[in-house]
Amino acid sequence: LKEVSAQQSASAAQLLEANQSLATTRLELEEARQAALQSAADIEATRNQLDDAQQQAQRYAADLEAAKAAKHTTEAETKRMRQVSSENEWTISELKSNVQVEEMKLNEALARQ
What we know:
It is a single chain. The longest helix has about 110 residues, at about 1-110. This protein is about 100% helix and about 0% strand. The chain is rod-shaped and about 165 Å long. The protein has one helix and no strands. The model has no long low-confidence stretch (mean pLDDT about 95). The N and C termini lie far apart (about 165 Å). By secondary structure, it is mainly α. The chain has one helix at about 1-110.
């Protein structure tokens, strides 16, 4: 009877130890589950940040292309304005020359009178 009682006590101690080990394993498993959930949330947040960054990069790329096109247009417009300015300078020079010729003719006509 004492032997049975000792065996029961040993079995009860083993059962208690197994229950404690199981409780510890359950706690570790819950901690691992929480860590996995946090990792999944972190991955999702990182994925969202990456999506936002890609969209922003696409907007910047579009803005850059628009700026390049505007620069090209501005350069072409500047070239055209320089050409017009050069043509205007030539026209002014011609007009001054014509004025001088007309003044000479007028002076000759006045001198003949």
